[in-house]
Amino acid sequence: MSLLSVEQIDVIYGSGSQANRVVHDFSLELSSGEIVCL
Fold it and tell me: What does the alpha-carbon distance between residue 13 and residue 26 come to, in Å, rounded to a whole number?
């Protein structure tokens, strides 16, 4: 799985409280190192 692009990250963080759910869902698939980068 490739890392999120800058545009995708902007969209996720721009969703308010819903963003937390999206990032949390990705955390289940990404490694801890990648999560720190995000």
Answer: 13
CB 12 within 8 A of CB 22: yes
Q: How many CA atoms lie within 13 A of 21 on its CB side?
A: 4
Entry pTM: 0.17
Q: Which pLDDT does position 38 carry in this prediction? A: 47
At residue 31, φ and ψ (nearest 5 deg) are: -75, 160
Give dist(CA 6, CA 28) in Å, integer.
20
Instruction: Say how many CA atoms lie within 13 Å of 9 toward its Cβ.
Output: 8
Q: Locate tokens 């800058």: which residue?
A: 6
